[in-house]
Amino acid sequence: MRTVTCAAPVNIAVIKYWGKRDERLILPVNDSISFTLSLDEMYSKTTVSISPTFTEDKFWLNGKEESLENPRIQNCLKEIRRRASKRKLEGSDEDVLNWHVHICSANNFPTAAGLASSAAGYACLVYALGQVYGVEGDLSSIARQGSGSACRSVHGGLVRWYKGEMEDGTDSFARPIAPANHFPNLRVIICVANDGRKKTGSTEGMRRTVQTSRLMQYRIRESVGLRIDSMMQAIKEKNWSAFCDLTIADSNEMHAVCQDSFPPCIYMSDTSHAVASLVHQYNEIQISKGNLNNKVCYTFDAGPNACLFVPGAVANEMLSLLLRTFPPSSPPNADNFIRGMKPQTLSLSKELESIADENAQSGRLKYLIHTKVGEGPRVLTEDGAHLLDPVSGLPTESGGMA
Ligand SMILES: Nc1ncnc2c1ncn2[C@@H]1O[C@H](COP(=O)(O)OP(=O)(O)OP(=O)(O)O)[C@@H](O)[C@H]1O
Ligand SMILES: C[C@@](O)(CCOP(=O)(O)OP(=O)(O)O)CC(=O)O
């Protein structure tokens, strides 16, 4: 039996992927750019075992057995096995391709809640399969066939997914464009307003947008390509202020085309807009003081939860501002309100206190996840890492917990 366990990170797009030019191959209508987040706080963990004694392929997700009929998982498996069979196979490796596979995966954060679980999940699956079958080379174009955004979680730091021009998708892959410390000491705060399953998934939402929104035609033809160029320039020049403005503009444009779809896809809630407005008020203060490097930006995926990118110098201040503006409604929530990296001192200037008090709405946010930018997937070798028992190939007691 061969068993490998890997962890893969979430990524958050700053120029969004929204819309496909090919649904089956998962080819996007535009390039996108993302930050990969640290594995320390949010990750998918996947164990893959192959054995001549297994009688069928099996898959467990978050502790529950699921069907492997899912065509997206099947496409990833097929492509990995095809690549493995193309390699020069030594001895027993040829048999290995006929062995059945057991896959057990779990996320340590909510699944299908607009927190990029499919991105981390499929990147992890493909990375772990790649390790088991000894597949080398670009894995991003395989992860893409699981979930588009997953192709960016195969790398760390700032990553660009090139949409490609070819009909067969061979030139649609992700590449790292800058390391994780490119903007040094950057923090990420995810403001979780709702971590339940979302009503309209990204796949259905983007299909509806491509089919019905006229504003989407403007985004594709006139807008997002230029924004990608400006973003590449801002990254090259380490122009944080421009980076923030472009990130905010692209999130707003994505949600505008969602709203313009028929029937509309509404992902942002009143709470989302309140967080966005707080960030704009905060930035106005920084701009008025000439501290452009202290600006904060927000972006929203297909859900109401804001993801904030925050310079390290003001991360504690931003956490304090969020805590005072959106305090937890009841004591049990207060204990675990700021998850992830522990903030140091929480204090606010009089000016920020009054902004918080003007906007205060308790109980609007369930919790915050405080994390940072990070590296791509990795193999886990520590004792007890496996989610499948290396002898029986069945889920261990911790099989449902990442
Ligand atoms: N660890 C995992 N391994 C394999 N598949 C996973 C894993 N986690 C999530 N998925 C797949 O991704 C689906 C959720 O994807 P969906 O796009 O609906 O939500 P999301 O990725 O959390 O949100 P968004 O893409 O909008 O940020 C799950 O139903 C499951 O099929
Ligand atoms: C809003 C987004 O997070 C959309 C992610 O969509 P998915 O990658 O989940 O969609 P499928 O390719 O259909 O699986 C923006 C982004 O990550 O770029």
TrEMBL record:
InterPro entries in UniProt: GHMP_kinase_C_sf, Mev_decarb, Mev_diP_decarb, MVD-like_N, Mvd1_C, Ribosomal_Su5_D2-typ_SF, Ribsml_uS5_D2-typ_fold_subgr
SUPFAM superfamilies (alphabetical): GHMP Kinase, C-terminal domain, Ribosomal protein S5 domain 2-like
Limits of the Diphosphomevalonate decarboxylase-like N-terminal domain: 8-174
A Pfam family: MVD-like_N
Keywords assigned: ATP-binding, Cholesterol biosynthesis, Cholesterol metabolism, Lipid biosynthesis, Lipid metabolism, Lyase, Nucleotide-binding, Steroid biosynthesis, Steroid metabolism, Sterol biosynthesis, Sterol metabolism
Pathway this chain belongs to: Steroid biosynthesis; cholesterol biosynthesis
UniProt-listed Enzyme Commission number(s): 4.1.1.33
GO terms under cellular component: cytosol
UniProt domain Mvd1 C-terminal: residue ranges: 188-380
The keyword Lipid metabolism is assigned to this record: yes
Reaction(s) this enzyme catalyzes, per UniProt: (R)-5-diphosphomevalonate + ATP = isopentenyl diphosphate + ADP + phosphate + CO2
Gene3D superfamilies referenced in this protein's UniProt entry, alphabetically: 3.30.230.10, GHMP kinase, C-terminal domain (3.30.70.890)
Protein name, as recorded: Diphosphomevalonate decarboxylase
